[in-house]
Amino acid sequence: MRCFLILIALFIYTPFAYGQGLFRYDRIDFFKDPDSKKDTVSEQAQSSIESIESEWAEPVISASGKVSIYLPPKEVRDFLDTPDPENAKAYLEWNLNRIRKFITAQEMLAKEAKILDQPRGRDNLTDTDSQKTGSSTSVAGAALPQGDYLFFFMLKGCPVCQKEARVVENIYLTHPEIKVQAFAVGYRDDELREYMFPAMQDKGMSRLFKVSSYPAIVLFNSKKEKYFISGYANKEKILKLFG
Question: Same structural domain for residues 113 and 148?
Fold first, then answer.
């Protein structure tokens, strides 16, 4: 009798010892190990990383487990791997192009910040606050306002005009007390909109001020002094005339 009971006990215990029930159902885990998913992601990431044979490969693993690889530009890798004159030249060209982009972006930010800080309308000779108040100075038959004014005359295709335009632009951005207006010959309207300072079609203004060569600047200062500059003038020379 005792032997019979022992056999029954062994029969019942054996399935449970192997994680199964009396009727041999497979074991079911309702709550898996929370680290199991992380292990899978780590394994996938590790296998992806190991498949790239480069000392420059820098693995970047996102929160979702996606693996991406960062590699420096080819010019940088080639120059550091094999520093020779040709690779050095390629590296310098790449770096200069990158710096130029930074400089261009910085200049644009500075201009936009200046414009936001000093909002200015695109006043011209026919629309000024001084004319509205009746205070003006008559020059060559045109009613001009009191204060500091700079009128810039430029011709398309003139390289000196482009050089002077950069000076005028700098004055416009750094000296908000000086009102700037440019008059252009040969430009399209969309081309004029690319300048930071107000610019419009000439429409006879050069004849009114007797401009016969380009570039030319006509300026009026707050002392009621009038100056005509023919050819290129640097910023210091122009500002000196405003006193």
Answer: no
